[in-house]
Amino acid sequence: MADRRKTLIGGALAAVLVAALVAIVVNRSGAEKVINAGGDTLVLVGKESDEGATAMGEGVLTDVGGCLGLNTDGRSVVVVWPHGTTVQTPDPLRIRFDGKTYELGDTVKLGGGFAEQLASTSYFYDQVPKTCQSTEVFYSQAG
């Protein structure tokens, strides 16, 4: 009888654990992430969102202190790329978003909004070099 009780309790605990893990995976699938893909430049990808900002960001794709960003109007900004952005190849770095592939040196246009720098409470803050933390940021939105 004791063995049967242990089996039932063990099975119930396993079911709860599996349910919790599935919930975590589902919740994180639309969340922010940092992609390195074996390269030197981190790619910050934003969470899934229906919100949109009205600013337009345009510039040349470049490494900004170890994070992928844009050189725009003589200044460099770190970009938080739209949800769904992927790294196609780490060297040379190529990313794909909104159905197009871009590499360092390409001109990119994005909708979104600027911020002075990453907030210390940001998901990305502790995962990026200090040079990325203190650089102006452009939060992009999918087209």
Could you describe the 3D structure shown?
By secondary structure, this protein is α+β, with helices and mostly antiparallel strands. The chain is built from two helices and ten strands; from the N terminus they run H-E-E-E-E-E-E-E-E-E-H-E. It has two domains: 29 residues; 109 residues, OB fold (Dihydrolipoamide Acetyltransferase, E2P), CATH 2.40.50. Helix content is 22%, strand content 40%. The strands form two sheets. Strands 3-4-5-10-9 form a five-stranded mixed β-barrel. Strand 4 and strand 5 form a beta hairpin. The longest helix is centred in the N-terminal third of the chain and has 27 residues. The N and C termini lie far apart (61 Å).
Beta-strand content: 35-45%
Looking at the structure, the CATH topology of the largest domain is: OB fold (Dihydrolipoamide Acetyltransferase, E2P)
Low-confidence stretches: 10-28
Gyration radius over CA: 20 Å
* Spatial sequence of strands, sheet with the most strands: 3-4-5-10-9
What structural class results from the helix and strand content? alpha+beta
Instruction: Report mean pLDDT, rounded to a whole number.
Output: 79
Strand runs, count: 10
Q: Do you know the CATH architecture of the largest domain?
A: Beta Barrel
How many helical elements?
A: 2
The coarse silhouette is globular
Written as H for each helix and E for each strand, in order along the chain, the element string is: HEEEEEEEEEHE
Considering DSSP H and I runs of 4 or more, what fraction of the residues is helical? 10-25%
**Quaternary status of these chains?**
single chain
Counted up, domains total 2
